[in-house]
Amino acid sequence: MVKIEAVGGMRTLLASLLLMGSLLSSAQTSPGRVVADSSSCFTARELIMPLTLVGAGTLGFVEPLKQARIEVRDYLDEWRGAHRVTVDDHLQYVPLGAVYGLSLLGAEAKHGYVDRTLEMATAYITLGVMVNAIKYTVRTPRPDGSAFNSFPSGHTATTFMGAEMVRIEYGDASPWYSVGAYTAAITVGVLRVYNKRHWFTDVFAGAGIGILSARIGYWMLPYTRKAMHKLTGLDAFVYPAVSNEGASLGFAMRF
User: Fold this and answer.
1) Cis preceding linkage at 64, omega within 30
2) Domain count of the chain?
3) Which residues, including other chains, have CB under 8 Å from residue 22's CB and lie 6 or more apart?
4) Taking a C-beta distance cutoff of 8 angstroms, is the pair 49, 86 a contact?
5) H-helix segments, 81-174
6) Structural domain containing residue 78
7) Which range among 34-48, 101-115, 224-238 shows the weakest confidence by mean pLDDT?
8) How would you class 172 by CB atoms within 10 Å of its CB: exposed for 0-12, middle for 13-18, buried for 19 or more?
């Protein structure tokens, strides 16, 4: 009987990963890329993928996925044993770092450092509000029973936000930047399930929220840029720099 449940759990897990992969593959060609003048342009179709992922995550509250996620957890318990990995706690920030770091390696981004900072700040605020509002309203127990804030996955949301920002900023320079960032993001999502910290449906919802947050940061850029200039009356530039003496942040202001 246990063996049958384990096989069922494995099939459910593989099907879930294939579904996420198929949904995310459209991220490389879906609308939402900046136009030539680097201005933001919203189209309703850009909501399809992130809202589909969030919708897939909410299906974890109804049958048969509600039972399927328990089978996946039990299968992983049997397969993994007491082994855990903690790399997901650090890997979640790699795509965010790449938003700036790829420029230092010579890649050409769509926007300058200030605009990218404004995008990221808006996206992070949006993500924080959405994730925490849902977590502490829905109050879903984690698979390991440690808390009641499982849905959605904040780690997954953070890393997918970074991956989508990499796609927006560097997707035209090379598709491999997007592939690398999204590979890291998917790895984080898988590890959250592997480590028994989240149900696989939490990861779907987190991925959708992360992508949506990044796109909101991008769509809002013309307004946040104007707001900063209106508040300060200045054009400020923040940029990372690397030399033989180490890494640093530079700040310049145009009066």
Assistant:
1) yes
2) 1
3) none
4) no
5) 87-91, 94-104, 113-138, 154-170
6) 2-254
7) 34-48
8) middle
